[in-house]
């Protein structure tokens, strides 16, 4: 699986503990390896938490959640500026607790409101210390909602003037309204198309048939009103469906494929 660093195959959900007594399964979606290493260290030394691994891209994040079933996902806001990934993650697993670590560039009323509407349960500054992050993980899991006190002033409802449609105006398509028009699987396929992969390569990564990938590509072109794959990727970046990695210049080589994932020795 491209961009995934696994640790264990699964953590149990009931009451936050698995039958084997392991703690809450925590994973991260973040492009910075050293940040993920620090989070891994924090989780390992915190009683009641279990580190599962991390993903460095959107499609890898979706596949990580499908395969490793974390209880809590810690997400970098720079990878989700339009909260599309948060919405897909929460829609795919209502029990999953999503914690967004917000960067200064996203620290606005509008972003917090959009994140909460997309299903994010907790929002903390990316610069928070380990003790506060561990507390946020526990609080978010137990209460299903936690906003760092330093962000409290941003939780007030943003004032917006309603924009009323003019008589005779046709309804705007979802993409024009800033919504996610693609399904979870279509989103993964489009991410891999943007990376330059052909249908056969996408099928191998997502464990799909080439024909199924071809069907998804056709659906993506139709939903985005795109002429071809290149046009679809261009539209997706311009509309915010796809985002560039905020730390591309510092990204490491891709990590092992999904076929290499195995449980860590206990």
Provide an overview of this structure:
About 35% of the residues lie in helices and about 10% in strands. It is built from nine helices and seven strands, in the order ββαβαβαβαβαβαααα. Strands 1-3-2-4-5-6-7 form a seven-stranded mixed beta sheet, with helices on both faces. It is globular. The model is unreliable at about 10-20 and about 250-265 (pLDDT under 50). GO terms for molecular function: DNA binding. Keywords: DNA-binding, Phosphoprotein. It comes from Amycolatopsis azurea DSM 43854. This is Helix-turn-helix transcriptional regulator.
CATH topology of the largest domain: Rossmann fold
Task: Give the total of domains.
Answer: 2
Report how far apart the termini are.
Answer: 22 Å
Which class best fits the helix and strand makeup? alpha/beta
The count of DSSP E runs of length 2 or more, i.e. the number of strands, is: 7
Question: By CATH's scheme, which homologous superfamily of the largest domain applies?
Answer: Response regulator
In terms of DSSP E residues, the strand content is 5-15%
Per DSSP, the total helix count is 9
Mean pLDDT: 81
